[in-house]
Amino acid sequence: MAETIKKIALENVDLLSLLGFNDSNLKIIENRFSASITIRGESATFKGTEEETELLEKLFKELIYVLNTKGSLRENDVETILDLTLQGKEIINEKEFDSIILYTKNDSIKAKTSGQMTYFQLVKKNDICFAIGPAGTGKTYLAVAFAVAALKKGIVSKIILARPAVEAGESLGFLPGDIREKIDPYLRPLYDALEDMLPAEKLKQNIEKGVIEIVPLAYMRGRTLNNAFVILDEAQNATDTQMKMFLTRLGVNSKAIITGDITQIDLPNRTVSGLVKAQEILTGIQGIGFVYFEKSDVVRHKLVKDIIDAYEKFYDKEKT
Fold first, then answer.
1. 182/153 Cα distance (integer angstroms)
2. Mean pLDDT value across the chain
3. Which letter does DSSP use for residue 268 in this model?
4. Cα angle at 221 between 219 and 226, to 5 degrees?
5. Contact at 8 Å (CB) between 230 and 144?
């Protein structure tokens, strides 16, 4: 019978926890299969019959999911998951596994809609990605998840999150406190996302050490950002000049995501949005991807879609 070879990536996986002390977990698996299992670097290779290699691929995905979700993998867990796999039962399906962006302590963050899956693939393939669409589609939240995942894997050494501090009806000069206290309310959504993804103490340490920076867009001027994952949120409120400044900060081994909603521009009249202009200037450049979200990608409360629909209908009537 012809041999089949299958391979699975082991990125974002603690190999000691997966394989067990002295490979105890691996030995349990090897005793139940005739196929060979080779672990090298960040991948596992299975060589044997097609049936066995397919089962091993499924088994390892289940083990990785449980390990990253629970934070540990005991020999009893391996035995249980192995029995379930051999019985044709599964904890997760292939599509769900491939959509996982980041494992958190209690759960996993995954792409849930077709737009989010496109987003996921574009971020993998491109160093710069523009995510454009209405509120509630996960543009910012997933961008932060991509960045945290890259930091955990060691792909980058720091995360920089920026937002334009547009004074939407409220002058910063009249707000109490120093500049940081005045700016923080504009940056709060970025803190909220990070707090969902990292333990509080770890987040605090990363911010204190400068591993994670959350800054107003204006603070980016003059910097070169190497080995960094850089996010510009609410980019529709960046001017054309600011957008060019932000994009040209990118250094060696860095990635950037720019998110925004071009229907929610708060810039003064006659000021051109840098996000709108970037679509005209940068579309078609290799290494830069654009993803456009629709109302169907909204993943907030079910009423959010209805609210977006109602506003669109109201303003469409006003135009006619």
1. 34
2. 85
3. P
4. 95
5. no
Q: In this structure, are residues 251 and 226 in contact, taking their beta carbons and an 8 Å threshold?
A: yes
pLDDT of residue 168: 39
Residue 171: per-residue pLDDT: 45
Q: Which of 102-111, 120-129, 289-298 has the lowest mean pLDDT?
A: 102-111
Q: Which two tokens stand for residue 5?
A: 């070879």
Give the confidence band of 169 by pLDDT, cuts at 50, 70, 90. Answer: very low
Query: Whole-angstrom Cα distance, residue 133 to residue 56?
Result: 40
Contacts of 256 (CB under 8 A, 6+ apart): 127, 128, 129, 229, 230, 231, 232, 246, 247, 250
Beta bridge partners of 225: 250
What's the half-sphere exposure (Cβ side, CA atoms, 13 Å) at 148?
26
Q: Which token pair is 196? A: 């969902």
How far apart, in whole angstroms, are the C-alpha atoms of residue 42 and residue 64? 13
Which is nearest to 88 in space by CA: 54, 49, 128? Answer: 54
pLDDT in tens, 275-318: 999 999 999 999 999 999 988 888 777 777 778 778 878 877 77
- Written as six digits, the tokens of 23 are 């490979």
| Predicted pLDDT at 65 | 83
Q: What's the token pair of residue 103? A: 């494992």
